[in-house]
Design brief:
The chain is an all-beta fold and 389 residues long. The protein has two domains: 273 residues, Beta-galactosidase, Chain A, domain 5 (Distorted Sandwich), CATH 2.70.98; 103 residues, Immunoglobulin-like (Sandwich). It contains one helix and 27 strands. The strands form four sheets. The chain has a ten-stranded antiparallel sheet, with no helix packed on it. Strands 20, 21, 22, 23, 24, 25, 26 and 27 form an eight-stranded mixed sheet that branches. Strands 1, 6, 8, 11, 14, 17 and 18 form a seven-stranded antiparallel sheet that branches. A hairpin with a 2-residue loop joins strand 21 and strand 22. The radius of gyration is 23 Å and the shape is globular.
């Protein structure tokens, strides 16, 4: 959220002074790709219609298992489209579902991707400057089109904020200008504030064989010092903090959609939040939670001991163990369940509480950490590992 615009309504023009961008912050959707070569590119921001003008909002479901709202943009003559976004908040979970719809309101065919942008405040909350412990994790596609696993869109190729380690893009915010695109096939990224131990996750579908804007399903923009080539010129980023704030953008893109007049295209993503504790990475992610340290378990006789494991979950639930044989058939479960919550990490200490009361079938080869949802009455897998004897 942009503190300078809190409580202020958009101008009639949809632009700020001298045609500047009214960037309210938060999350928004734009057409992709961005560019300035011809009408097949979106030249914003700013965009007086799709970004700077009021949207029409409505409440679809005020309460129940989920609450939902809908916002619809104005019709944009230049791009020929109108956006609608439907947002659902689910009970007893941090999951937020976002359904984006793009309709061709023109009289001729249009071809765009849906570009969902979320802006994150990277300022140090306790003192001046930026938080050096803000990181983004995104798996690299092993069959990536890009030699490095990503492509540089803005800023220098050797930007120290972006590193590839063990098949993972790890980005550390350093207040330097830059943007990269990743053809992420895993369909998730995680933004971690390691100072406070919180994680924001966005999950999305990646469709093999489809063409994506910028050849990327995920893009990352870091706001900061430096120069970029944009809007047909070289731009030096301002020195004033109010004009060049501490923030980064996580950006998810749909494949291109060609739409005849009146046709539409849709794109679905899910947001999640959880707490994992301070100064930990995210190495894996599912619809249940995130993994910070992989599950590792040993067995001596019938005694089970967890050697490693640290997780964050996305909902109020119960955690238990399932025992699996060599044929991948479940042959037993733990007698004890422990409560888990997005408000605290699931640690090795809690895992060993489960192990203390567990009776391990003799043919057990694998141990699975399973989550029983209170609200959905479903059982889902968080992690699994083979037993070390």
């Amino acid at each position: 959220m942009n503190d300078q615009l809190v409580g202020k309504s958009p101008t009639a023009s949809g632009l700020g002074d001298n045609g500047t961008w009214l960037n309210y912050g938060g999350s928004k959707i734009w057409p992709a790709p961005q560019g300035w070569g011809n009408d097949n590119f979106w030249p914003g921001p700013p965009d007086a219609v799709l970004d700077g003008s009021p949207h029409v909002g409505s409440v679809l479901a005020p309460n129940g298992r989920f609450a939902s709202v809908q916002v619809t943009s104005q019709k944009d003559k230049r791009s020929g489209i109108q956006f609608t976004r439907r947002i659902k908040l689910y009970e007893n979970t941090t999951q937020v579902s976002v359904d984006c719809r793009m309709e061709n309101v023109d009289t001729k065919p249009r071809r765009w991707g849906i570009w969902q942008v979320t802006q994150h405040n990277t300022a140090n909350r306790k003192q001046c400057g930026y938080d050096e412990n803000v990181r983004v994790y995104c798996p690299i596609n092993i069959e990536s089109k890009h030699p490095k696993g990503y492509r540089t869109i803005f800023g220098p190729d050797d930007n120290p904020e972006f590193k590839i380690e063990n098949g993972m893009m790890t980005a550390t915010y350093l207040h330097q200008i830059g943007k990269i695109g990743i053809d992420c096939s895993a369909g998730w990224y995680a933004l971690v504030n390691e100072t406070y131990g919180y994680v924001f996750v966005e999950r999305f579908d990646w469709i093999a064989g489809r063409e994506y804007p910028d050849d990327a399903s995920f893009e990352l923009w870091t706001q900061g010092k430096g120069t970029i080539q944009a809007y047909g010129e070289e731009i030096k980023m301002p020195d004033k903090l109010e004009e060049n704030p501490y923030l980064l953008e996580t950006e998810v893109l749909s494949p291109f959609a060609r739409m005849e007049p009146g046709e539409s295209a849709s794109f679905h993503t899910d947001w999640y939040v959880t707490k994992i504790g301070e100064h930990l990475p995210v190495i894996a992610c599912s619809t249940v939670g995130v993994t910070c340290k992989p599950l590792q378990v040993s067995c001596s006789g019938d005694k089970l001991t967890f050697e490693n494991g640290h997780f964050g979950v996305f909902e109020q639930a119960l955690a238990g163990l399932a025992f699996v044989d060599a044929n991948e058939s479940e042959i037993g479960r733990s007698n004890t369940w422990v409560p888990v919550s997005p408000e605290r990490p699931l640690t090795i200490e809690e895992l060993n509480k489960l192990a203390e009361s567990a009776h391990i079938p003799s043919k057990t080869e694998h141990v699975s950490l399973i989550i029983l949802s209170k609200s959905r009455n479903t059982m889902r897998l968080l992690a699994s590992t083979s037993i070390s004897r």
